Amino acid sequence: MKTAYKILLSVLSGILVLFSFPTVLFGWHAPDLAIIAWFALVPLFVATYKSSPRESFALTFIASLVWYGGSVYWVYNAMFNYGGLSFFTSILIAMLMIIILSLYISVVPCLAKWVNRRFRGELIVLLPAIWVSVELCRNYIPCNGFPWANIAMSQYSLLPIIQIVDITGVYGLIFLIVFVNEFVAEFIIRLSGEKVQFFKQKAIVTFIILCAVVAYGFYKLDRIPKSVETGGTVKVGLMQGNIDQGEKWAEEKARYNLDIYSSGTKELSQAPVDLIIWPEASYPWSLADNLKSLPPRNLGISENKKNTNPYLIIGAVTEDADQYMYNSALLFDVNGRVAGIYHKTHLAPFGEYVPYKKLFFFARKLTVHVGDFIEGESFLPLSFGNHKTGILICYEDIFPEISRKQVNNGAEFLATITNDAWFGKTSAPYQHLALSVFRAVENRRYLVRSANTGITAIISPIGRIITESNIFERSMVVSSVFPSDIITTYTFLGDWFAWACVAYTIFMLSLAVKRKKLKTKN
Q: What is the gyration radius of the CA atoms in the chain, in angstroms?
């Protein structure tokens, strides 16, 4: 196959993967095409079937540039429109992120080809195992990780398919999607007259696994609601103030911005609800650690002792006695007293701190409004009444291990508070919501999201989005959620499947290296 055709196939794969994700391009909201993820990688795998490791790397890099470029372009919007950086600096940071993400995935077929050559044959699960291993690394490296736009994200709306993540986490779903794509590619190659090793075995395995996953999915879709919806409910009121990022920290707008939420609190208190949740950093001033600067009347909490207030969670920037700053969630009890606080444990690079400051000296403007934050250390949920909710601030809900820790510490449902105003009207708010769906399914917990500009939503333990707001509209969402004490396989064992893939990958790489050394000696 000519190189030009291989490049075209790679670009086609990039486009197909991109449109399997929730996508907004040039103001156009693409339809939900989750199903195409199951064959989106086929053109790329066909192009790399007889390619060298080096060529496979290059072709995959081209494909991943397309899908990451079309998925995380919103980084430029955040840097340029709201971060105060120049056009060229914003482009530079966005491109750097896209290149780093693309380099991760490009390693996968390169390594698979190199190992397969040492064994003079195709190892059936090697490619998807390496893919999962790389995705696990991307969850932690660099800059604390950024697992945005993994291919599992595309499946958030296919409820029968995603139920398997309560056993394997999203990594099992990633493995399956890559495995099926590889099989379909080999089927096409076989039709062209090429000999494909282990094709019949792969066909049988693929059929059995897909049937098992779908059957398990329908079983859980029927059983989980019955298991969860057996006890009492918590009525939650979520607020979406729709405050423009450019006005969020403007001193002259602070009182007006606070009034939006305090008046909403008064309204929701009459609903009535048990718990009201404000978005991330919705309180417009930083708060001293002792919280004496926060009288209850500023929050819409009734000071009449005859009235019973709902519990209230607000997002705020807090500062301790040593002037260290935290991105925090504060819980107020029915008497308006602070009953708990959670500090964000996973900070966003370039948004809450600048990594490698000497290298990225030009990006210091990004944190000029609030300064660099300090990470929290506790994963304890916030307790209100007889219930506990695990707090996830901003993009903490894209990291599965954080939700898992909260649930293992007793969280009966999860609550995300976020400010997605940074993203503008791009793909990011929709992708952020899609990623959070998996946290609900992994741990079989309701997940509620209170977002400044959207998307505010309620997600059930089977991943169904029960209700959601429109973006960039002021709104309130009220719904009942069922607290859960289910402990899933994933909650108990964590990323066992991903680490098994890592162990297998390392084992096969070590064997391949040993074979190469023996061949060199002989």
A: 24
CA 171, CA 499: separation in Å to the nearest integer?
10
Q: Quote the percentage of the chain above a pLDDT of 70.
A: 93
Q: How many secondary structure helices (H) and strands (E) does the chain include?
A: 16, 15
Residue pair 415/436 in contact by the 8 Å Cβ criterion: no
Tokens of 353: 């701190």
- The two three-digit tokens of residue 346, written as one number: 């996973």
CA angle 294, 300, 301 (to 5 degrees): 80
Judged by phi (left if over 0) then psi (alpha if -120 to 50, else beta), residue 417 lies in beta
Give average pLDDT by consecutive 10-residue segment, the chain, 522 residues.
Answer: 92 97 91 95 95 95 96 89 81 91 95 87 86 96 89 97 98 97 93 82 92 97 91 93 88 92 92 94 82 68 71 93 89 89 89 65 51 87 96 96 97 97 93 97 98 96 96 95 96 98 95 77 60
Q: Look up 365 and say whether it is catalytic.
A: no
Residue appearing with tokens 């944190």: 367
Q: Tell the residue number behind the tokens 């099992």, with chain if given.
A: 172
Q: What's the CA gap between 482 and 485, in Å, rounded?
A: 10
Residue 210 zone, left/alpha/beta (φ > 0; ψ -120 to 50; rest): alpha
Three-state DSSP at 119 gives helix
Torsion from C-alpha of 444, 450, 454, 455, nearest 10 degrees: 10
| Phi, psi values for residue 9, rounded to 5° | -65, -40
One of 6, 113, 220, 344 is an active-site residue; which one?
344
The residue with tokens 């291919």 is 151
How many CB atoms are closer than 10 A to CB 29? 12
In angstroms, the CA 99 to CA 258 distance is 40
Burial class (CB in 10 A: 0-12, 13-18, 19+), 520: exposed
| Cα torsion through 260, 261, 265, 271, rounded to 10 | 70
> What Cα–Cα distance (Å) separates residue 252 from each residue in 255, 257, 314, 452?
7, 10, 21, 19
Residue 521 burial by Cβ neighbours in a 10 Å radius (0-12, 13-18, 19+): exposed
Q: What is the DSSP letter of 353?
A: B
- 3-state SS, residue 228: helix
* Amino acid identity for residue 192 in this structure: S
Average pLDDT of every residue of the chain: 90
Backbone angles phi and psi of 423, in degrees to 5: -80, -25
Domains, in order of start, for the chain? 3-227+495-521 (no CATH), 232-484 (3.60.110.10)
Active-site residue identified among 113, 202, 248, 394: 394
Structure letter (DSSP) for residue 260: H
Residue with token string 């309620």: 458
| 280 classed as catalytic | yes
Cα–Cα distance between 49 and 469 in angstroms, integer? 45
Residue 300's closest CA among 268, 272, 331, 274?
Answer: 268
* pLDDT at residue 230, as a whole number: 81
Residue 113 falls in the annotated catalytic set: no
Which residue among the candidates 186, 280, 442, 468 is catalytic per the annotation? 280
